[in-house]
Specification:
- With 390 residues, the chain is an alpha/beta fold.
- Helix content is 44%, strand content 14%.
- The protein is built from 15 helices and 11 strands.
- Helix 5 (119-131) links the parallel strand 3 (111-115) and strand 4.
- Helix 3 (73-83) crosses helix 4, helix 6 runs parallel beside helix 8 (205-213) and helix 11 packs across helix 13.
Length: 390
């Protein structure tokens, strides 16, 4: 295989000497060598028992879109063992690519529902599955995973691009469908954020929101050399298991509260709630009427805001600007004193959100609500059905 790559490289170097665009020449050279590597792996492993997973793609893979194919059979087997599909399970696979993992999941489960947006991948996937005689147990949904409604499933297995990791995790754990577990292959940095605990430097609002409703467990690290083409960073596998018992909290209120607290996660709560702008934000979310019952997803931080009439609650909203000018200074000062008084009485004034557990945050939110301090519009909160459309 490597001799073939060297031969291709030498031949292309001779042919591309006259090219005026050296960048195009390099891209073409890399594509040809990638194709040779993929076919070389195919030829070497096709003779091995159970080596179907090593088939390489015969088209351009877009690194910018997170298209990296996992090719190491041992890692593929380990992911399937971690996912632990049962013979009667329906597996939701997000981002199946060319089917390396799909074939193994089909062998271990009743059915696989594969969500893949790239039509080229879908064509290869269907052919490989048909060659193995599994076509009647595979359902392919060629759509954007963030925009499609998932059918019922028992477990999730996914190789998720970094760009959609946060919103996809939120969509799964806060969705309507109850499932047993999600085994996710994520960029290592993102996995560390998801696994972070209070006091860790990576601890963030995403981890807080996910761990409110699910347990997150580290499974294993995966080297970048196990992918084709090779990405810049390593990956990790994590397992997410939804909790059977959820805390008694209004989720819209919780999301708004954590967004307020984790805007500056290392600043003390006392300092945060003494800011005039922060007090104004709380007054706005408590006063504006007609909040829609849907959720906007942010790639970096999970659920970011509740929308108003189809738009986000941005600082430039004209309704907010008019509200800002109409709120008396005395009203803001009273609200600030009330919040700081609660923080002081409960011992939270000098504490930082980055070091608080979910139990502590839930307690603080309950005490603030009891004192009449809310973080989203309460007229709609009484009729809240947010989870229906997540």
């Amino acid at each position: 295989m490597f001799r073939r790559c060297r031969s291709i490289r030498a031949d292309l170097n001779r042919r591309l000497l006259g090219q005026r665009d050296p960048d195009r020449a390099r891209r073409l050279l890399q594509a040809k060598c990638l194709h040779a590597r993929a076919n070389g792996d195919d030829g070497r492993r096709a003779s091995e028992k159970g080596g179907r997973e090593a088939r390489g793609p015969e088209f351009w893979l877009h690194k910018s879109k997170g298209q990296h194919i996992l090719t190491n059979p041992r890692v593929l087997d380990s992911i399937v063992r971690r996912a632990d599909p049962k013979p009667g399970d329906t597996v939701l696979e997000i981002g199946p690519g060319t089917g390396n993992l799909t074939l193994k999941l089909l062998e271990a489960s009743r059915k696989v529902v594969a969500v893949e947006i790239d039509g080229r991948m879908v064509d290869v996937l269907r052919k490989r599955v048909a060659d193995c005689g599994f076509e009647d147990r595979l359902t392919v949904i060629q759509k954007d995973a963030l925009k499609t409604q998932f059918p019922p499933f028992d477990i999730v297995v996914a190789n998720i691009p970094y760009q959609i990791s946060s919103p996809l995790v939120i969509k799964l754990v806060y969705g309507k469908i109850r499932f047993r577990s999600a085994t996710l292959l994520l960029q290592k940095e993102f996995a560390r954020r998801l696994l972070a605990n209070p006091g860790d430097s990576e601890y963030n609002r995403l981890a807080v929101n996910v761990k409110l409703v699910a347990d997150v467990e580290f499974a294993m690290d995966v080297s970048k050399r196990d992918f084709l083409p090779v990405p810049k960073v390593d990956s990790s596998v994590v397992t997410i298991r939804p909790k059977t018992e959820l805390p008694n909290v209004n989720l819209a209120e919780w999301w708004a509260f954590t967004r307020t607290c984790f805007g500056k996660k290392n600043k003390t709560l006392g300092a945060t709630f003494k800011q005039k702008r922060k007090v104004m934000d709380i007054l706005k979310t408590s006063t504006l009427v007609g909040l829609r019952e849907d959720v906007t997803i942010n790639d970096n931080d999970g659920i970011s805001s509740v929308s108003i009439d189809g738009g986000d609650m941005d600082e430039g909203n004209s309704e907010e600007e008019s509200l800002s000018s109409s709120v008396p200074e005395g009203e803001m000062n009273l609200l600030k004193e009330k919040i700081v008084g609660v923080l002081r009485a409960e011992g939270f004034e000098d504490k930082r959100p980055s070091k608080l557990s979910n139990d502590e945050l839930l307690h603080l939110l309950a005490v603030l609500n009891h004192a009449g301090v809310y973080f989203r519009n309460q007229v709609k909160s009484r009729q809240d059905t947010l989870l229906a459309d997540v």
